Amino acid sequence: MLALVAIGAASCKKDNSSPKAGVAASVTADNYGFDGGGGSAFKSTQAGIVTAAGTFTVTAIKDGTTQSLSIVLLGVTTTGTYTLDQGNSAGNGALITKDYTKPTDKTVSYTTDNDDGHGHKGGGQIVITKLTSTEAEGTFYFTGYNSTGQAGFTEQGKFSGKINSH
Fold it and tell me: What's the DSSP call for residue 24?
């Protein structure tokens, strides 16, 4: 899943040399946090929604930070509700990171593919309410765990914007 997230993140980087249609998106979450601490708001004006080879990805960098979140869904062709629960049969997943510039540091990356070692498993849900060939929007929530069993979470999340198709 980290490879898919890296592809999505790379697709969201701004390219000042040539403006591309379809890369403008926004992502917000009312409650977002790490390691048992209280949550805060997440807002990203550096977000992207990408569809490529049957994969639907929402990637966002929290404004003014190196924190990010990514959601990867496989085989999405229509609106609907998609699970992010650990081990789901579709292979969907999500990742929150404290520092996207450290992709190999598993202590700062919280994924729905992990659990905390005490029976708490990562998971969540994304609801796509609009999906056309050029635009998407929806809501989400999920909890992920890092390599030490600490939780990262996002609740009351929303995304909307243009789709960048490859």
Answer: -
Alpha carbon distances (Å) from 78 to 6, 14, 132, 139: 24, 27, 8, 15
pLDDT tens per residue, range 44-101: 988 999 998 889 999 999 999 999 999 999 999 899 999 999 989 999 999 999 999 9
Yes or no: say if 71 and 126 are a contact pair by the CB < 8 Å rule.
Answer: yes
Nearest to 157 by CA among 9, 49, 28, 19: 28
Give the separation between CA 32 and CA 54, rounded to whole angstroms.
Answer: 28
Nearby residues of 55 by Cβ (< 8 Å), 6 or more positions away? 4, 72, 73, 74, 76
Beta strands in the chain (DSSP E): 25-34, 40-52, 55-61, 68-74, 80-83, 93-97, 109-111, 123-131, 135-145, 151-165
